[in-house]
Design goal:
Length: 525
Amino acid sequence: MERPVAEGPHKLRFPRLYNAAHDLLDRHLEDGRGDKVALIDDAGELTYAQLTERANRAGNALRALGVRHEERVLLALLDTRDFPAMFLGAIKLGAVPVPVNTLMQPQDYAHFARDSRARVLVVSDAILPKMEQAIAQSPFLERVIVARTPLGGDPHAHALLDDLLARAAPALEAAQTCSDDAAFWLYSSGSTGAPKGAIHLHSHLAQTAFLYAQPILGIREDDVIFSAAKLFFAYGLGNGLTFPLYAGATAVLMAERPTTAAVMRRLIERAPTIFCGVPTLFASLLADPAIAAGPRPARLRVSTSAGEPLPRHIGERWRDRYGSDILDGIGSTEMLHIFLSNRPGEVKYGTTGRPVPGYTLELRGDDGQPVADGEEGSLWVHGPTACAAYFNQREKSLATFHGPWTRTGDRYQRADDGTYTYCGRSDDMMKVGGIWVSPFEVESALAAHAAVLEAAVVAHEDADGLVKPKAFVVLKPGAVAPSDEELKQFVKNQLAPYKYPRWIEFVAGLPKTATGKIQRFKLRA
């Protein structure tokens, strides 16, 4: 099966017959890279040859269960070797893996099972108790396979993945899929409502690596990449699977949740050269006194951030402490990975950087027409990784996808130098005194206070029914809460006076999606 060919620095030409798993796995064996370490998880190292065999066995195991071409396979897997094996094994078979968030509630899994119509579920033992409702309520699920993990859990009477892999053949010929065939689904993070199944194609994985990982990250074969952002969503999937396997590099996987202690332990012990996180994690790592006093990563040359815009002070403090920049960028489930980003040597903290070559961006006003530099507009993106549609959501598909353009729902301003500054989500913006106010701008001002770890700002009506900003504030560990008046004045000193929060509520944490996006609709409710 042929591989894609570069037609210039920002365009890949794909053959008609193309299988993404074959491209990410088998070519490394053909190129003599079989003995190189492909990934390191809690169980140890796995070479490219071993990962390819495990993926082949996974594909054959699914075939033995009756999974056929184009059928969905639901994956609720922690970040272990079983995730890439099952994900790529299903794709190589010609099936469609559907990885889902491992931090959701039982009713969410019931939605995923019914909506995807998957016949087979592969689930980590630690997640299984939350899946029981989905298993009982789905009219489509026929088989449940349990993957053992270091976190443990009772598999009950379900078949064990290791047993199925041991019985499956170690060789698998790639299905004769097309580059435009559906390869996998990802569910949107649900920052504004129920998650939607975004259908991605075989060509999309390689496109993200070719357009972003190689020219922006500069990923090389000798890199070790560790993504605290998990594999089940778009940002983590690229960081921890697509990019290292495309480049022939090594991925570090972590099954447990990304606490500051767990993340820093991998940064020290595995010595990655590339680290991928979200703004909240970077803020927490900087605020943890135990980490500040401990050893520092030895080989880290670059970090990336997405999910929410990175506050300027977090990027600057990270660079001062660790000697490497954070490349803040924005992507989406619909576009698969980052299409607007800062880049090495051109970091401008407080902005999301410039468009990734290969993508075209426009800011449009409410009338649908482009706005001038310095004016705020809705962000639209045109690029080769846009999902085909939302499954069974025609109305929402038509509202998001307009020919080659995708409407992101994010609002930005573009400066004269071509950099973009985030203003908020379209549904999060508020008018105060007839003037638009970005919640992110107020949140960034609050987060610059020495006692504040993070903040979320939403629209709230006063006694007269007029909209004003209300702030929910999370304090740093051990910090003494400042007075409301102190925080209000702190914001006034940085922003136009009408933007300061009229109400301040201190909370233990903020509701977020798995990608780190603040779910402001829950705070508004």
